[in-house]
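Feature request, filed as a ticket because there's no other form

It would be nice if the structure record came with a short human-readable summary line next to the C-alpha cells. Right now we just get the raw output. Example of a typical job, pasted below so the devs can see what we mean:
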Amino acid sequence: MAGASMLPLTTEISPPNVTVDLSIFALVEQALHVLLMKRTTDPFADRWALPGGYIHTNEDPDVDAAARRVLKDKTAVETPYLEQVQSFGDRARDPRGWTVSIAYMALISAADAGLQCGSNAAEVCWWPIEDDCVAPPLAFDHSVILATSIRRLRNKVEYSSLPVHLLPERFTLPDLQAIYERILGRRMDKSAFRKRIAEADFVEAVPGEKRAASNRPAQIYRLKPGSATIFFDRTL
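Raw output as currently delivered:
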C-alpha cells in the first residue's frame, strides 16, 4: 500500500553452545599418552572423548579459567603449561546443535595426576599416541582436535622447553633428552642436546642429589623456579 511504512524483517538468532576441550598429554611408561574419558550419555554414549565441558558463565571469568577448571576436575592438577590451540565450530560437530569448541593442550606429569571420572564419564584413562591419533574412534570431532594438538606439540618441541613439563619435579638430563626423542621420533646427539639445554638455561642442578647408577651416578635437575617456556634461537 502506498505510503505504508515498511517494517524490517527480523530473524531470531540462537547463540551457539560454547565448550572447552582439552588434549592433556603425559608420559606413561616412557611413551606419550593423552587422557580420554568414556562417555555415559548420548550423544556418543560409550565412545571415548577428550575431557571438556561447557563454559560456566557464573564461575569462569574467561576461557582460560574454564580450561583450567576442566583440567583440575579431571586430573587434580593445576598445570604449569596450558595453551589454546584453535577454535572448532560448525552445525554438524554436535547433533544437539551449533557448537563452538575452544581447544587447549596441557602438559602434565602422570605421576602427579589423580584421575577422576566426573558425572558423564564411565572411565578415564591414558591412551598411547600413535602417529597423530589414538586407537579408539573418538566422539564429536575430537580426533581432529587431537591431531591438531599433537602437530602443535611436535612443532613447538623442535624449538622450546615444553617437554620438561611432562617430567616429575626432579629428573636427569637423560630423562629430558629421552622425552624430546620420543615426541620427535628421532635420536639426538647427546653433546649437542646438552649444549642447547645449557644455552637455554631453564633447568638447574639440585645440590647434593644424584640418581644411583651402575657406573657414575646421574645428577638430578629441576625446572628453575619461575621459569617461563623458553624458545630456542634455532631448532634442535
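Something like this underneath would help us a lot:
Helices lie at 63-75, 142-157, 173-184, 190-200.
The beta strands are 17-28, 31-39, 48-49, 52-54, 81-90, 99-107, 121-128, 203-211, 218-223.
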